[in-house]
Amino acid sequence: MSVSGNAPSSQSPARKLRVVMAQLDFLVGDIPGNARLVIDATRKAATEHQADIVVFPELCLTGYPPEDLLLRPSLDLRVDEALEEIRGADLGPAIVIGAPLRHHGLLYNGAVVIERGEITGRYFKRFPPNYQVFDEKRYFAEGRDVLTLDIRGIPVGITVCEDIWKDGPVEDCAAAGARLILNLNASPYDIDKQASRKALLERKSRENTVSIVYVNLIGGQDELVFDGGSMVYDHSGALMAEAPQFSEGLYPVDFICDHHCQPVSQSLPEEPSLESNVYSALVTGVRDYVNKNGFKSVVLGLSGGIDSAVTLAVAVDALGKDRVRAVMMPFRYTSSMSLEDAEAQANALGVQYDVFSIEPMYDAFMATLAKPFEGTKPDTTEENLQARLRGVLLMSLSNKFGSLVLTTGNKSEMAVGYSTLYGDMAGGFDVLKDVPKTLVFRLARYRNTVSPVIPERVITRPPSAELAPDQKDEDSLPGYDVLDQILNLYVERDFSAEAIVAEGFDATDVARVIRLVDINEYKRRQAPIGVRITERGFGKDRRYPITNGWKSGK
């Protein structure tokens, strides 16, 4: 479908236009609730911001990603009912919303323009992505047409998310006379994403001499986090307005439209540090997962180590101290330092704190296992039993009190299998699942600049699982400075073993790390989901067969 309006003549006076970017958090599957959110936000944009146009994120009616909900037989009916409710709501501004749309039997990722109760335009996304965490081609057909239309007398083009990353849609809108392009997005966060978006928008707006309004979803959806960061670029490629990341709200931008639609410049938010940005992503992911799934509270094992310390701080910042419970479960190998530091952090954050020794349970299990274990020597079996007893305690508290168990494993550990199935992996959500260990240390330092809640010794002591006397992580792993670099090259960038060695790493270390990554896929398949913050996390991003004969090397 291609709809083109009449552009104002060169003699027409400049028109003023106010666009409100609705950077909001939608619940996947709640189509009626999302429709009401659209209506309420539009009314608020009208009364508080005198909006002419309100732009919402991609697939806001269903939430993103709706996955196989798109295959439900009642999808079309529910979407149609929601659109009818919005049309009948007597909204003043024109609105642009994202929704799945069926046309000639095919389903499209679409955008709908509604003005004065009428649908004045429908657009079908031309480039549904099928890489990393995206599998839109499983559900959506590819659109083929351009949509430009007059909204409040201004020629406006509509595109959806991936369309702006490809050649064609923006160029076609500009060629059809659009002076302003509205781009609806559900673009998930990763550490480098906002910089990539800015570079792209700068180039696209400048090359096509058209202003672009980029509106992004916000909030957590399972392992994905959407960071907002909605932006406006003018026709010369200058950034004129930017909504803060991880901040829900309605953000108005004024335009003066004659030969171009020139946005009025606004003060831009301060560029956040990497640590601040990642920490905000973790808080957002935990808050939305817990709240959207209806958990009353969370519980986690607090060991006195850095991973559980950062996890506890994130949980409290996401949910408040009254909804967080920390449990220390000491054993004979637990140091007095760990006991002291765990209690100090729990007190600093004001959470409920309990100490339950696993010693009696361990002794009971070992007594039962004495006969089958007779004649064997202690090994990782006894170490894993400690972790599994702690998992049983935490899951029992979860069942009794309706609390979600937060696990505390980081990406480095998950990569090499330095974790225990049904032990420290037992739980519902892993806050640090995609956070390399070296970054965990940086996050601890960052959090203490906000307020000192993590004891210094937790950050500076050598990491240890404390499952054996004088145990240190680096007894069985390369140092984390080395390990994390190898993992980045292998897991996130797909370097071969030979290519990693060519980067200057020890061949023995590389072979060992790659082998550990490869043989522990079966563990990761059974691990809780967790917040994705890198360009390639375990789960949706990286899907390798457990059973395979692939040999590392070239």
From TrEMBL:
InterPro entries: C-N_Hydrolase, C-N_Hydrolase_sf, Gln-dep_NAD_synthase, NAD/GMP_synthase, NAD_synthase, Rossmann-like_a/b/a_fold. GO terms for biological process: NAD+ biosynthetic process. It holds the Pfam family CN_hydrolase. Deamido-NAD(+) binds at residues 384, 413, 523. Its EC number is 6.3.5.1. SUPFAM superfamilies: Adenine nucleotide alpha hydrolases-like, Carbon-nitrogen hydrolase. It catalyses: deamido-NAD(+) + L-glutamine + ATP + H2O = L-glutamate + AMP + diphosphate + NAD(+) + H(+). GO terms for molecular function: ATP binding; glutaminase activity; NAD+ synthase (glutamine-hydrolyzing) activity; NAD+ synthase activity. Residues 17-257 form the CN hydrolase domain. The active site is at 58 (proton acceptor), 125 (for glutaminase activity), 161 (nucleophile). L-glutamine binds at residues 131, 187, 193. Pathway: Cofactor biosynthesis; NAD(+) biosynthesis; NAD(+) from deamido-NAD(+) (L-Gln route): step 1/1. Keywords: ATP-binding, Ligase, NAD, Nucleotide-binding. Catalyzes the ATP-dependent amidation of deamido-NAD to form NAD. Uses L-glutamine as a nitrogen source. Belongs to the NAD synthetase family. This is Glutamine-dependent NAD(+) synthetase. It comes from Marinobacter pelagius.
